[in-house]
């Protein structure tokens, strides 16, 4: 028997990760070494940037989503070359593989790089190479999602969406989905209706962060005005029972990020993440890491934290992992393969936990 049987059981489950910002996998150590290599000056008037250790300490004291985003955008300014992006994503995929991730749908923020003079093609070349390598060497199927920064003017988002290289990446299938992220309050989904209409016309998959800090009305707006088929975070859904019923009925998946919600103070403790309420209401959701280098854990740490807080039984874990597989944007064959793998793992663990 392994020393930590529950952790090992959760590791063995064929997990799908749907909510991980690749830039959020940039650890303080890598951030400092890239900044030195690329001659990027980190803020000198903020003592958090004295060393990787002081940065880690600062990450323990985030007060809100915006407080985190301030550090997130500074951190990613150290990324310059295609190989910086590739190494970052490869580091994430290795962690994901060690945690038993079978399929990973990963976000990146093009505008956070193009607005500081990095070419979109550089970013996509690096991330794309790491995705291919993860498929080949780790057996993880992948999907790249380009997120738009909602704190920027919608016309800027449209402009980058229409850029020739960006369009090429969609049409070639290197990037297959769009998302909406960054500061949430005061930047409602309906501002991006035209962008999402155009993305839908291209056949891209659609998701958006909604109901992380802002109210459940952001979730209904993302569904109705943007036509998304998935909601990132969505924890405020529990404040709108009618909408919760509809989301359960439609099998719209939420990508819940428990450690993130605690660190960014959307909830007080993991026990306040509405896992039990979502399960009881029959809402489909997956469990994800969001920004693992900033929130103290990768996907398995999130699974373990949920297990410790809610003491879920095997049936409940089966339904969560199954929802993640069924809600993934991979092929029907891949879903079947993962469902079969899930059944094998459950059979192997029967009676052991
Ligand atoms: N949790 C989060 N919410 C919104 N935007 C983000 N970008 C990276 N992490 C994010
Ligand atoms: Zn996120």
Automatic annotation (TrEMBL):
Positions marked as site (Important for catalytic activity): 233
Residues at which Zn(2+) binds: 19, 21, 209, 290
Protein name, per record: Adenine deaminase
Function: Catalyzes the hydrolytic deamination of adenine to hypoxanthine. Plays an important role in the purine salvage pathway and in nitrogen catabolism.
Single Gene Ontology BP annotation: nucleotide metabolic process
CC cofactor note: Binds 1 zinc ion per subunit.
Organism: Didymosphaeria variabile
Entry annotated with the keyword Hydrolase: yes
One GO CC term, this protein: cytosol
This protein's record includes keyword rRNA-binding: no
Record's subcellular location: Cytoplasm; Nucleus
One Pfam family here: A_deaminase
All residue ranges annotated as the Adenosine deaminase domain in the record: 14-343
Top EC group: hydrolase
Keywords per UniProt: Cytoplasm, Hydrolase, Metal-binding, Nucleotide metabolism, Nucleus, Zinc
Residue numbers binding substrate: 291
Known EC number: 3.5.4.2
UniProt-listed PROSITE patterns: A_DEAMINASE
Catalytic site positions: 212 (proton donor)
Catalytic activity line of the entry: adenine + H2O + H(+) = hypoxanthine + NH4(+)
GO molecular function: adenine deaminase activity; zinc ion binding
Cofactor: Zn(2+)
